[in-house]
């Protein structure tokens, strides 16, 4: 079932990860076109791999809500709109996906983090795009181009593999600090403590 | 958990006017993340300095170039103002009111972190007299953008090259003195440049549109103290198959990436009301 996650460590690491996300955004922007890797999704993937189910889901929701708060949408009248929910729901669904398959994954492998981070990011972005596109149908108050966003966020999902690869080593080293000591039992093996 | 999911679902689709309260939480989140994001940004700027138009220039050369740019901007602003005053005098004689010109005060403030969406976050706000629509520049005369949202200590600036920026009217200086100008409407492309179409007023060679020519702001939607600020230079000219007589120009700001400047200069009218000293 997994050891309980240390929420203080989670909060601290989340704080650092969001700082990295905001600071590195212009540096890692590919071609200045808005394609950039996510630092937060690898964290979501990491806690989904190791934490107990309920804690992983709540962690994903919390990270998603913070992601909504730090990324306001531009309005047609030039202002900003903070919409809480799309990233939270996207991260939640991505976390569900990882929880569903984690039993058959080799957890302590950087390539596992890369692949599931890319997939999780893509799932989360699809949810975000679907929500904002549906909103845009009802009221045209936000600057939103579904086609552009789909392309941009798809490439960002691929790019997230790079940040996942680098962060995986950090997260694996921090696993004991998070409280992750035992492994999730695989489908055909006994629990290893 | 199901209730939380339901609430998030409702919030995702709620009208914007119902979720205005979320801005307070967003501001507090920015303030919380700033202490970690700002040092990382400073470290990044030290490791990878922002690229300016002439990276090989010494600091002294850069200062002199900026001073020349400032005086040139003032000359062009005075010339534009003269034309404006002539029009006002004309109106005044017919009974219209004259609006006095404004002095400008400027001060530097650092960028806190990279981006929030398309927006730059700067460490200043209402305590320094900023309001929505305040003008920001870099390198003395390079237009950066307008303040989109401001709270007490933080402000968000939308660069003119952001894809969510509105198109801006500009003028191409066809010669050094700026006597010959051609107007255009520039739209951000999304890769740090702006695209627009400009028509040559005459077939005279003096009116040729060429790469390297300076493009400056000339838009009534912007305050008077922002007029004639530099938008950039023409990077290249593209063929316009639909309208061959109109040149399609790509303009790049003098700073390679406006989103990654270490600090910005705020330009406010000198009589901007009620600002507190920090």
Strand order of the largest sheet of chain A: 1-2
Q: Which sequence of SSEs, written as H and E, runs from N to C of chain A?
A: HHHEEHHH
Q: How are the strands of the biggest sheet of chain B laid out side by side?
A: 1-2-5-4-3-12
> Percentage of helical residues of chain B?
25-40%
Largest sheet of chain A: 2 strands, antiparallel
Mean pLDDT of chain A: 85
| Outline type of chain A | globular
List unreliable stretches of 5+ residues of chain B.
94-100, 273-278
| Count of β-strands of chain A | 2
Helical fraction of chain A: 55-70%
Gross morphology of chain B: globular
Q: How would you characterize the overall build of this protein?
A:
The complex is a heterodimer of chains A (about 190) and B (about 280). By secondary structure, chain A is mainly α. Chain A contains 6 helices and 2 strands. Chain A has helices at about 5-25, 40-50, 55-70, 85-100, 110-140, 145-180, and strands at about 75, 80. Chain A is globular, with a radius of gyration of 17 Å. Helices cover about 25% and strands about 30% of the residues of chain B. Chain B contains 3 helices and 12 strands. The longest helix of chain B has about 35 residues, at about 60-95. In chain B, about 35% of the residues are buried. Mean pLDDT of chain B is about 80; it is low at about 95-100 and about 275-278. Classes of the chains: A mainly alpha (about 190), B alpha+beta (about 280).
């Amino acid at each position: 079932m997994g050891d309980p996650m240390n929420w203080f460590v989670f909060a601290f690491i989340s704080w650092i990860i969001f700082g990295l996300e905001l600071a590195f955004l212009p540096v890692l922007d590919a071609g200045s076109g808005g394609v950039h890797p996510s630092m937060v999704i690898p964290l979501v993937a990491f806690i989904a791999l190791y934490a107990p189910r309920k804690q992983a889901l709540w962690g994903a929701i919390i990270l998603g809500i913070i992601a909504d708060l730090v990324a306001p949408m531009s309005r047609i009248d030039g202002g900003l709109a903070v919409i809480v929910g799309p990233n939270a729901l996207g991260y939640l669904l991505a976390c569900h996906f990882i929880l569903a398959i984690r039993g058959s994954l080799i957890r302590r492998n950087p390539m596992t983090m890369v692949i599931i981070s890319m997939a999780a990011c893509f799932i989360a972005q699809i949810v975000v795009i679907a929500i904002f596109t549906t909103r845009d149908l009802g009221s045209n108050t936000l600057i939103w181009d579904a086609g552009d966003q789909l392309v941009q966020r798809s490439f960002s999902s691929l790019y997230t593999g790079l940040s996942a690869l680098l962060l995986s080593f950090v997260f694996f080293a921090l696993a004991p600090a998070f409280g992750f000591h035992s492994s999730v039992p695989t489908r055909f093996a006994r629990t290893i403590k | 958990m199901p209730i939380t999911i339901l609430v998030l679902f409702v919030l995702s689709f709620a009208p914007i006017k119902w979720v205005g309260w979320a801005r307070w939480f967003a501001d507090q989140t920015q303030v919380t993340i700033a202490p970690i994001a700002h040092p990382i940004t400073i470290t990044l700027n030290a490791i990878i300095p922002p690229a300016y138009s002439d990276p090989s220039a010494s600091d002294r050369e850069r200062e002199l170039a900026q001073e020349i740019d400032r005086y040139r901007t003032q000359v062009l602003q005075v010339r534009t103002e003269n034309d404006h005053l002539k029009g006002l005098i004309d109106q005044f004689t017919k009974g219209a009111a004259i609006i006095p010109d404004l002095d400008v005060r400027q001060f530097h403030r650092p960028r806190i972190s990279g981006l929030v969406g398309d927006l730059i976050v700067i460490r200043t706000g209402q305590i320094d007299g900023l309001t929505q629509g305040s003008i920001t520049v870099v390198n003395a005369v390079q237009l950066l953008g307008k303040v989109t949202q401001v709270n007490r200590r933080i402000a968000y600036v939308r660069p003119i090259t952001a894809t969510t920026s509105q198109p801006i009217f500009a003028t191409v200086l066809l010669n050094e003195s700026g006597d010959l100008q051609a107007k255009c409407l520039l739209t951000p492309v999304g890769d740090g440049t702006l695209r627009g179409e400009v028509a040559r007023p005459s077939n005279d060679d003096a009116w040729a549109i060429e790469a390297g020519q300076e493009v400056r702001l000339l838009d009534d939607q912007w305050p008077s103290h922002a007029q004639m600020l530099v938008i950039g230079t023409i990077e290249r000219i593209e063929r316009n198959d639909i309208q061959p007589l109109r040149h399609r120009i790509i303009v790049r700001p003098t700073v390679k990436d406006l989103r990654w400047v270490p600090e910005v200069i705020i330009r406010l009218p000198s009589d901007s009301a009620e600002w507190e000293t920090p």
